[in-house]
């Protein structure tokens, strides 16, 4: 009799725990959905992205020369 009562108490406790988790997760999903809808209504239109222009644009040949010099100096320094 005692073992049966302990087993039933364990099953009841398990059911209560599963029910609590189910209710909590349901409320969590509902609140996240409501917040998402609210933020979509309140959010303004996104600002257009402006790409900054370089202050002093290098031509392709100058850029290749600068990169080549940097690679050459790096390799020379690495040998030492």
TrEMBL record:
Biological-process GO terms, alphabetical: sodium ion export across plasma membrane
Topology in membrane: Single-pass membrane protein
Enzyme superclass (EC): translocase
Gene Ontology cellular component terms for the protein in this record: plasma membrane
Main localization of the protein described in the UniProt heading: membrane
The keyword Transmembrane helix belongs to this UniProt entry's keyword annotation: yes
Transmembrane spans: 12-39
Cofactor list: Na(+)
Keywords assigned by UniProt, alphabetized: Cell membrane, Ion transport, Membrane, Sodium, Sodium transport, Translocase, Transmembrane, Transmembrane helix, Transport
GO molecular function: decarboxylation-driven active transmembrane transporter activity; oxaloacetate decarboxylase activity; sodium ion transmembrane transporter activity
InterPro entries reported for this sequence: Na_pump_deCOase, OadG
Catalytic activity: oxaloacetate + 2 Na(+)(in) + H(+) = pyruvate + 2 Na(+)(out) + CO2
Function of the molecule: Catalyzes the decarboxylation of oxaloacetate coupled to Na(+) translocation.
Oligomer and partners: Heterotrimer of an alpha, a beta and a gamma subunit.
Protein name: Probable oxaloacetate decarboxylase gamma chain
Taxonomic source organism: Candidatus Halomonas stercoripullorum
């Amino acid at each position: 009799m005692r073992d049966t009562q302990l087993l039933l108490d364990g099953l009841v406790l398990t059911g209560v725990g599963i029910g609590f988790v189910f209710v909590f997760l349901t409320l969590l999903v509902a609140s996240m959905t409501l917040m998402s809808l609210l933020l979509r209504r309140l959010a303004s239109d996104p600002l257009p992205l402006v790409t900054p222009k370089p202050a002093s644009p290098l031509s392709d040949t100058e850029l290749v020369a600068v990169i080549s010099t940097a690679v050459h100096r790096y390799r020379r320094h690495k040998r030492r």
